[in-house]
Description:
alpha+beta; 41% helix; elongated; disordered N terminus
Amino acid sequence: MDGWIAETALACERKFTLPEMPPVPLTLEGSCMLHQIFRFDWKGWRALSPAERERIAKAAEAKLKEICSGPAEGAADQSALFSQLGHKGDLMLVHMRPTVGALNQVELHLAQMELYDYLELSYSYVSVVELGLYESTAKTYWALAEKQVVPFSAEWDSSIKETIQRQTTAMATRLFPSFPETTYICFYPMDRKRGEAVNWYQESMADRQRMMHEHGMIGRRYADDVRQIISGSIGWDDWEWGVDLFANDPVVFKKLIYEMRFDEVSAKYALFGSFYLGVRLPVERLGSWLAGSL
Length: 294
């Protein structure tokens, strides 16, 4: 009898262990994002007369001021301009808007500038600000499992919806962030590996939660020096996430990313795209930039 009770208890424990719950962590979504990388036609620009360059530059400044000035702190309508280093581009524009349609409208507004004739879009990235709720997901799944709530039942869905609504309210400033007033930006896209030998999406929820917690602890040590915005792009673009880092010292990007390479989630499961480094360019300085000076 005692053996039967022990086996029954073990079976119940296994039935409601976290790995057997739905493996997908809950996420919160906020502002939609668009990164645009442009090459500038310096030869064509220099061929213009000084008067033409000044006229086009002033018109572009006016249009970009309209696009880049968000209505209020933390508002969803924001854009930022950066002078980019290296061969991948000359200018970087990063936009945050409440909807994908609003992002598309920004693209159309930019295309109406005469200066746009001298810009060649070399790269773009579409995503949405995302917060992964590994900790909250685990707690919610455990609570539902203890109540023996059937996954994806009406009661289950209602509880999940309540969790998402509560967390969205609590995390509003992170879901709809303002661009930090820092000098430098580092942007890169990334994936989690899903090959035959190593597959992030086949690891248990508990293991992924543990690794993401350890990963996040590294980032917290740099919180005084670096601000970050993580955006998700699965189904929207070619990579799974976009990472924006903001700091006043660009060397800190190297130190942070280098240290993170040693933790398990990055060393074993991460794939990185190209890295883009930029220097903040106030819109009112665009004319100077076009004349060869920051």
